Amino acid sequence: MNVLAAIGRSVIALLASIGRVSLFAGVAASHMLRPPFYLKEFGQALLFIGYFSLPVVGLTALFTGGALALQIYAGGARFNAETVVPSIVAIGIVRELGPVLGGLMVAGRVAASIAAELGTMKVTEQIDALVTLSTNPMKYLAVPRIIAAALVLPVLVFIGDAIGIMGGYLVGVYRLGFNPAAYMNNTIDFLEAWDVISGLIKASVFGVIVAVMGCYHGMNSGRGAQGVGRATTNAVVSASVLILAANFVLTEVFFTE
C-alpha cells in the first residue's frame, strides 16, 4: 500500500503542476490582446531572445547539418544510395532537427535566464513593488516575453535551417565529393514548402513553451538563492521535455495521413 500511495501522490502532484501551468498560460493569453501594451519590454525581449540567441542556434545548425550528411552518406553507402544525402539532409533539418535543436538551445539559454531574472525579482520583492504601483506583473513581465518568443523563434529556426543545409552542402561537396550544382538541385527538387512551414509552426509553439516555462517557474520560485536556482533548473528541464513531447504531437498531426 505504501508503494501505491507514493505512486498516487506523484500522479496527483504531476496533475496539479499541469493544472497550475495551464492556468498560468491561460491567464497570460487573456492579457495578450488587452491594453496596456509594454512595447519597450517587448522590444528588449525580441533583442534578447532573437538576436543574442542567433550564434548558438547557427553553430548548432551548422555542425548538425555536417554530421547529418556524414551519417546519411555512411548509411546510404550500404545500399548504394549515396545520392539521397542532399534531400534527406534538407528534409531532416527543416522538419525535425532545425526546430527541435533550435528550441532546445533557446530553452537552455532563454528559459534559464528568464527564470533566474524573474525569480530574483520575486526574492527581492520587485514583483510585489509592481503590484503596489498598479502594474500587472503578468502583463508587464510575462506577456512581452511570450509574444516575443513566439514571433522570433521561427525566424531563428529559418536562419538555422539555411545554415544547417549549408553545413550539409559544405561536407557533401568538400568532404564527400558531391558535385555542387547537383547537390543544390537535389536539395531544391525534394524540399517542399510544407516541409519548411511545418517546421516554422513547430518553432512558434516551442517559443511559447520556452517563455511560459521560464516565466512560470521564475514567478513561482522559492525564497532565497536556492529557490532561484531550483526554478532555473526546473524551467530548462520542463521546457526541454515539453518541446520534445510537443514535437511528437505536431509531427503526428502534420505528417500522418
The CA-CA distance between the termini, in Å, is 44 Å
Total number of helices:
9
Q: Work out the count of structural domains.
A: 1
Q: Report the sheet with the most strands, covering strand number, pairing sense and barrel closure.
A: none
Spatial shape: elongated
List the helices and strands and how they pair.
Layout: H1 2-31, H2 39-49, H3 54-76, H4 85-123, H5 126-132, H6 137-174, H7 180-190, H8 193-219, H9 224-255
In short:
With about 260 residues, the chain is an all-alpha fold.
How would you describe this structure to a colleague?
The protein is mainly α. The protein has one domain. Helix content is 85%, strand content 0%. The chain is built from 9 helices and no strands. The chain has helices spanning 2-31, 39-49, 54-76, 85-123, 126-132, 137-174, 180-190, 193-219, 224-255. Helix 3 packs parallel to helix 6 (137-174) and helix 4 runs antiparallel to helix 6. The longest helix is centred in the middle third of the chain and has 39 residues, at 85-123. The protein is elongated and about 65 Å long. The termini are far apart. The relative contact order is 0.16.
